[in-house]
Design brief:
The chain is α+β, with helices and mostly antiparallel strands. It has two domains: 42 residues, no CATH class; 151 residues, Distorted Sandwich (Glucose Permease (Domain IIA)), CATH 2.70.70. The protein contains four helices and nine strands, in the order H-H-E-E-E-E-E-E-E-E-E-H-H. Strands 1-2-9-6-5-4-7 form a seven-stranded antiparallel β-sheet, with no helix packed on it. Strands 3-8 form a two-stranded antiparallel sheet. Strand 4 and strand 5 form a beta hairpin. It is elongated and about 80 Å long.
């Protein structure tokens, strides 16, 4: 039986119970039963918003993998709960990065060393922090999926790249962050599951 069929049966059963003699939604036992039935009904309702994260795409134009299929390797310095991946490597800077989903710039006066940086919130409710860019954007600016956010800047003495931090608190819970690195707490290490794997596991009803 599907969840939709279970939900239909549950609602039919509740409708019948509410017709019984003595039904009192504020009464002790009835109130307790309704509270538990509310939880069950909420669990059976189809998810119409949480699945938007599955539509997050690549952060570079062309045949690149989705951001979801990347693994995070280090924290974002000075910004808690934004574990990151470095991407858009090389070329002396000038590598284009794009919006992986519809996003809006939600915080101003951010910067990175070198270059500019922006915070933006996606339609999925994931928040993004992108650093080492050649430009800034005004508060409230909206990107469509695939819009150019900017180009990377050269980083003297280091490999040129863009820094992409991801905050998933709105999906996985306040104060929680996605896993990054090899689990030892050492930055710039590998071994964390991809963002897609982590969100699939954390948002599954089986967890």
């Amino acid at each position: 039986m599907t969840d939709a069929a279970r939900l239909k049966l549950l609602r039919a059963a509740r409708a019948e119970l509410r017709k019984t003699t003595g039904y009192d939604p504020k009464g002790g036992h009835w109130r307790a039963a309704e509270r538990e039935l509310d939880k069950l009904e909420a669990d059976l309702k189809p998810d119409t918003t949480g699945a938007l994260w599955k539509l997050v795409g690549p952060i570079q134009p062309g045949p690149f993998v989705s951001l979801l299929d990347m693994s995070l390797t280090h924290p974002t310095s000075g910004i808690p709960l934004f574990p990151a991946v470095d991407t858009a490597w090389g070329a002396g800077g000038g590598v284009i990065v794009i919006a992986p989903e519809a996003c809006v710039v939600d915080t101003k006066d951010t910067s990175s060393s070198p270059g500019e940086a922006i915070f933006m919130t996606g339609r999925s409710k994931l928040r993004h922090w992108i650093g080492h860019l050649d430009r800034d954007w005004p508060l409230g600016h909206r990107f469509k999926k695939g819009d150019v956010i900017g180009r990377t800047l050269p980083i003297p003495g280091k490999s040129d790249h863009g820094h992409w931090g991801v905050n998933a608190e709105a999906l996985i819970g306040r104060g929680r962050e996605l896993r990054w690195g090899d689990g030892t707490g050492r930055p710039y290490t590998h071994g964390a599951p991809t963002i897609r794997t982590q969100l699939t596991r954390l948002l599954s009803r089986d967890v």
